[in-house]
Each structure stands twice: as C-alpha cells, then as structure tokens.
Design a protein that fits this description.
The protein is α/β, with parallel strands linked by helices. The protein has an eight-stranded parallel β-barrel with strand order 1-2-3-4-5-6-7-8, surrounded by eleven helices. The chain has a single domain, classed as Aldolase class I (TIM Barrel), CATH 3.20.20. It is 45% helix and 14% strand.
Amino acid sequence: MPLAAMREIILPAQAAGRGIGAFNVIGIEHAEAIVAGAEAAGAPVVLQISENCIAYHGAFAPIARACLAVATSATVPVAVHLDHASGPELVEAAAELGLASVMYDASRLPYASNVGSTAQVARWCHDRGIWVEAELGEIGGKNGLHSPLARTDPDEAARFVAATTVDALAVAVGSSHAMLTRDAVVDLGLIDRIRRAVRVPLVLHGSSGVADGDLVAAIGAGMTKVNIATQLNKVFTAAVRHTLSREPATVDPRSYGSAGREAIASEVTRLLRMLGAGSTSQEVAAGPREPAARTGAQAGGAGEPLSPVE
C-alpha cells in the first residue's frame, strides 16, 4: 500500500469523532511491531520519529528510511511523522528524506516568538505539501521543564492557528510526557472549548499517562491524534525482562527482541481498537495487556532510562 498522507488519516477521523494512534519509534522493531498491530486492528496508524530518537541513532536517514520502507509495505494506511523537532533544520531534513508530516515544537518560546517561528516553518512546509503540527501550552514532562499544570487557552489557540496556518495543534490539557503511571487528569471541558475554538485536529501528547477510559473520553471531547510512546516502551521492556528471567543464558537478541516486538504489536492492536481507529470490533479488555508472567520489576520501572520527551 502506498505511504499515506497524514491528512488522509487524520481528517476522516476528525470528521467521524474517532481517535488515531500515533506511536513513537525507537528502532526498526518498534516500527515493525506498530504496523503489525495496526494491521491486526484493521486501522490506520502513524509512525513517529522524535528528535530524541534521531539523537539516539546518531543520524536521521537510517531510521527514517526504515520507517518509510515498513510503512510502504503495510496493508493499512501508515503515515511517517517527525515528532518534536525543535529547529527548522530538522524539518528540512525530514522533507529531504521523504517525510510528509512534521511536528515543529517552538512551545518553549514566548507566544509571539512561537507564532513567528511556527508560521515561517509552516509556510515552508506548505509550499512543499507537508502537513504541520505545532504545540501551544508547553505540555508537561519534556526534559523535566514543563509543568503538567500548564493549560492551553482556547482563544489564544484560535489566534495561534489563524496566525500560523498549522494543520494540527497539540494542546496542554493535563497530560504529561514520559509518565510511568496512568493517572494524569485531563480537562475534558477544556478540550471541548478548544475544539469549539479551532477547526484543525487536536493532538494529545503524553497519552501514556492517561487511563484508557479517560483517553476515550478525551476523544469524545474533541481530541483526534493520540500520541503514545512510553506505554510501548513499558510493554517492550516487560516482555524482554520476562524472557531473560526465564532464559538467563540467552545471548541471541532475536529471542528477547521478538518477545518485545510481539508485546508492542499486541498493545498497539488493543489501543487502536480502543481509540476507535479500526474497522474491527471495538470491544477491548480493560487495562493494558502485558505478559502474564512478569518479574517483580515494574514494566519500564523507575530506573528504566526512558526518553524525557515522548
């Protein structure tokens, strides 16, 4: 199936009041597992490559080309998206590599500077047919700097979208990046007010910290794109730990890597069905599905070096 454009995935979901899962990639195993999970759900999906992921690999091209290849061979629509680019140079690199969707994050800047910088990037991208997501409100958890108490003002959001012409807007409504617990309190009333103030699809970052029922409620209130990263890292790590604890003499990375890949695929299928992105049954068991026989360590436990951005 040809690589999907973000608008082909997001806009129909927005019109139908459904959620779209956007999952962050760490390595090729993540990309393969995410697409396998989406195929099992019969759902479109977004593969996201963050600035942190690029730094981890030391280069953009290898992981980008791998994701594009996995997406192109999928049997469901898959978009490949640059997540949390903090500078225009990375946006330009994404375009050169063939990514047609980017998230430019200037939310750390004062409002006027955020508007000016984002508008300039959006003009450059739109001239090349690239979808642009931006952020307003400094969503919690990034590099330990942003408070989960930050909130996006609906009127300011409307002015921001009008001034920048972005295609989607990530907003601060109570979620926080890199949470290992799922007890973030999202402000559903605020989501509804922002939805009424702006026409572009809304994006929920830090969704791993939001309980299943609250994710569904957030979509009902107006969210469309739901970004998930840490939850996949948790189930991957739990599966690897379980495999190594059961087979401590294992040295072949394929044995425990495949266990992690299967755990991600299963969780992606469950999440996509819950978010309403798939064409299959929407009945989902409560709570995330993880390996039944876990070790005493918490999945993605407190000492696990997870990315501070996703």
